[in-house]
Design goal:
The complex is a heterodimer.
Chain A (H helix, E strand, L loop, with lengths): L2 H23 L3 H7 L3 H10 L4 H23 L3 H19 L2 H9 L7 H20 L1 H9 L1 H6 L4 H42 L3 H26 L3 H16 L7
Helix pairs in contact in A: 1-7, 1-10, 1-11, 2-5, 2-10, 3-4, 3-5, 3-6, 4-5, 4-10, 6-10, 7-10, 10-11, 10-12, 11-12
Chain B lengths: L14 E5 L6 H8 L17 E4 L13 H12 L3 H10 L4 H4 L8 H13 L5 E5 L7 H18 L2 E5 L3 H7 L2 E4 L6 E3 L1 H4 L2 H8 L15
Parallel strand pairs in B: 1-4, 1-5, 2-3, 3-4
Antiparallel strand pairs in B: 5-6
Classes of the chains: A mainly alpha, B alpha/beta.
Chain lengths: ~250, ~220
């Protein structure tokens, strides 16, 4: 693997760890995982029209995010339910549009040479996600704890929620090419779930999640080459192993 | 529509208790007051009103890796308050800083409610809205919590609106009472509103409650 690939994968993992913390806080782990699949129809359309699959994925994620947010606000249905419906629709459309091998690639990722613009775009994305989560973590926490309390404290709740969903989608997009639709959702959720088990404060949780995500990614990359298996599944297996290792270390109540 | 034809006013610096059976719309009223729910008619706050609101339930479970300090610090940053305001708020509710450094899941019911009170006090509000501030607190703790809220209210000259089921404490601590039930709302001083007949009619059963004669405080 090239050094550019390693740099980008570290950034991607860090962004995934940060974003994931706020997804597991509200017990929307499964919904968040499903959210990542929204990229699929975009990838299908992009392949059909010979556009870069990533562009299609990003576009679909942006549309999906806006749809989830808008539906949730209009209908006051829970985020989980809305994501569940939008996700199923996305998966159905995606599997109609993409076929066979393309679909497997989109689901599991295709590691390959990174073009310079892909590296630059990726790093810009990482900086945007990490910057947003770290700078707005107070507002994010308050909006999670209680939307009403956050509102009276002066947090623009609707705007923060929309920005968070975009940060989430952008993180998924960062990992699309590398881990694929299926596994990127897991890299967002599993390290954050581990952090939720063992951390004692918010900053600790963010740090543990980033550490677990980055460690799984680097270890996975090294190990995958040695055992001759695709990288993505190895990374997620290691992330899940860390979660189970964390269980006995669970913070006492 | 949950509540009809409701009119009431709360003078600056006084305490209003909202009472009534479950499902009568007490929390809905509060959420309308803070602008989280749509409503007809008019809600008018005095100019310069800053609200400190504590809901009945949080949207999260308490097993998260969040400490009291995370909580208060977040509000401080959002409302532009400094670290000294965090310390001040903790002092006002008698919560030792070492307790505030623990995850919120490790706090007792009373400590957690005090943390929420401290949270509401951050950012120097002049109106406090409490939706059942003694949820999950044992009986002696309830009275201490009400005394603490009352003390902070008087010391800081705050206007207090609270939802409560503790009628004997309401009788002692509230300047006026608003009752919500299936009947039309009623509003007035505790001595007029909290009559045994009305309480029985409102809750559908006589309630454990004693009037503290000659003691309206505040």
């Amino acid at each position: 693997m090239t050094w550019t690939g390693i740099v980008l994968s570290i950034g991607m993992a860090a962004a995934a760890g940060l974003v994931g913390c706020f997804a597991v806080m509200r017990r929307m782990a499964l919904a968040a995982d499903a959210m990542s699949h929204v990229a699929l129809p975009g990838i299908g359309i992009a392949i059909a029209f010979h556009v870069h699959p990533l562009l299609g994925g990003v576009a679909a994620l942006a549309v999906g995010t806006a749809l989830v947010w808008g539906l949730q606000r209009r209908t006051r249905i829970s985020t989980e339910t809305v994501i569940g419906v939008v996700f199923s629709l996305a998966l159905a459309l995606g599997s109609m549009l993409a076929t066979g091998e393309e679909l497997i690639d989109a689901l599991l990722g295709t590691p390959g040479e990174l073009k310079p613009w892909e590296l630059v775009a990726g790093l810009v994305g990482v900086a945007a996600v990490a910057g947003f989560v770290i700078a707005h973590r107070s507002q994010l926490v308050l909006a999670q704890v209680s939307t009403d309390m956050a509102r009276t404290a002066g947090v623009p709740v609707a705007r923060i929620e929309l920005l968070y969903l975009f940060a989430f989608s952008l993180t998924v997009a960062l990992g699309l090419r590398y881990l694929g639709v299926l596994l990127m959702g897991s890299l967002i959720i599993i390290p954050a779930a581990t952090a939720k088990l063992v951390a004692r404060s918010l900053d600790e949780m963010l740090a543990v999640a980033v550490a677990c995500a980055v460690a799984s990614t680097l270890l996975g990359e090294a190990l995958a080459v040695r055992v001759g298996r695709p990288t993505g599944p190895v990374i997620i297996t290691i992330a899940a192993a860390l979660f189970f290792l964390g269980l006995p270390l669970r913070r006492p109540h | 529509m949950v509540i009809h034809r409701l009119t009431f006013a709360v003078p600056r610096g006084s305490a209003l208790a909202v009472i009534g059976p479950n499902g009568a719309g007490k929390s809905v009223l509060f959420r309308a007051l803070i602008g989280a729910l749509g409503h007809e008619g008019e809600v008018r706050w005095a100019e310069g009103t800053r609200i400190g609101y504590v809901p009945q339930k949080l949207d999260i479970e308490r097993d998260l890796p969040l400490t009291g300090m995370d909580f208060l610090g977040a509000k401080a940053r959002v409302s532009g308050a400094g670290p000294e305001d965090v310390q001040h708020a903790l002092q006002e509710v008698n919560l030792p800083p070492r307790m505030a450094k623990k995850p919120i899941g490790a706090l007792s019911g009373g400590q957690f409610q005090r943390l929420l009170l401290a949270f509401a006090l951050m950012g120097r509000p002049n109106v406090l809205l409490f939706d059942e501030p003694t949820a999950g607190v044992d009986e002696p703790g309830e009275e201490r919590l009400y005394e603490m809220i009352r003390r902070v209210q008087v010391e800081d000259g705050l206007t207090l609106l609270l939802i409560s089921h503790e009628l004997s404490l309401v009788y002692r601590f509230a300047d006026s009472v608003l009752c919500l039930s299936r009947d039309p709302p009623c509003f007035g001083p505790p001595g007029e509103i909290l009559t045994p007949e009305r309480i029985e009619r409102m809750y559908g059963a006589p309630l454990r409650y004693h009037q503290h004669r000659g003691e309206p405080t505040g």
